[in-house]
Specification:
There is one protein chain. By secondary structure, the protein is of the alpha/beta class. The chain has one domain: 3-Layer(aba) Sandwich (Rossmann fold), CATH 3.40.50. The protein is 23% helix and 30% strand. It contains 3 helices and 9 strands. A 6-stranded mixed β-sheet has the order 4-3-2-5-6-7, with helices on both faces. The protein has a 3-stranded antiparallel β-sheet with strand order 1-9-8. Strand 2, helix 2 and strand 3 form a beta-alpha-beta unit. Helix 1 packs across helix 2. It is globular. It starts with a strand and ends in a 7-residue tail after the last strand. The mean pLDDT is 94. It binds 1-O-pyrophosphono-5-O-phosphono-alpha-D-ribofuranose (PRP), manganese (II) ion and magnesium ion. The site of 1-O-pyrophosphono-5-O-phosphono-alpha-D-ribofuranose has 19 residues, from strand 2, strand 5 and helix 3. Its cofactor is Mg(2+). GO terms for molecular function: guanine phosphoribosyltransferase activity; hypoxanthine phosphoribosyltransferase activity; magnesium ion binding; nucleotide binding. Belongs to the purine/pyrimidine phosphoribosyltransferase family.
Length: 179
């Protein structure tokens, strides 16, 4: 599996250090609020697990599953909701926990949806941001790392459902996804 990686962008240690920093900032910002982490399956499953443990506050956790990519490498803006929140977000200070913001379609959709469902506030924490991919404006409050153009996988992120279990994040060899 690692032979499919062209270049490691962020090691397991770098990711852990950055997640700890984000957790400390979120703790400071959300003290005395009603924090609900909304993880986006499946890509954010590892980030949610690590970030939740780095935020030393009482909080609730829920998940949504939305897909914009299918098995391809680019978003067309059509968002499919596979799993909605278990409870309405009404009154909660929602922090969407996302692995990567690329075109922005997924997050723009989710933000609108959560605001329409009367969340008290809605912000975004993304571990990775790929500004070069942006098609619609989305401004995460917390960003772990900015990534270059190219297809990144690992630490939850897939290509055709593979590579999610890599403990690091790297650039996939273009020949793998047919570029
Ligand atoms: C990927 C990624 C983000 C989204 C970002 O999810 O995990 O959620 O795409 O792309 P966008 O900014 O262009 O919308 P995907 O739809 O592949 O589902 P997955 O998390 O289950 O892999
Ligand atoms: Mn995703
Ligand atoms: Mg995906």
């Amino acid at each position: 599996m690692t032979e499919d990686i062209e270049q490691v962008l962020f090691t397991e240690e770098q990711i852990a250090a950055r997640v700890a920093e984000l957790g400390a900032r979120i703790r400071a910002d959300y003290a005395n609020r009603n924090l609900l982490l909304v993880g986006t399956l499946k890509g954010a499953f590892l980030f949610v697990a690590d970030l939740a443990r780095a935020v030393d506050l009482p909080l609730a956790v829920d998940f949504v599953s939305v897909s914009s990519y299918g098995d391809g490498v680019s978003s067309n803006g059509a968002i499919e909701v596979r799993k909605d929140l278990d409870q309405p977000p009404e009154g909660f200070d929602v922090l969407i926990v996302e692995d990567i913001v690329d075109s922005g379609h997924t997050l723009a959709f989710l933000q609108d949806e959560l605001r329409a469902q009367h969340a008290a506030s809605v912000e975004i924490c993304t571990l990775f941001d790929k500004p070069s991919g942006r098609a619609v404006p989305v401004e995460p409050k917390y960003i772990g790392f900015t990534v270059p153009d190219g297809f990144v996988v690992g630490y939850g992120m897939d290509y055709a459902e593979k590579y999610r279990n890599l403990p690091f994040v790297g650039l996939l060899r273009p020949e793998i996804y047919g570029a």
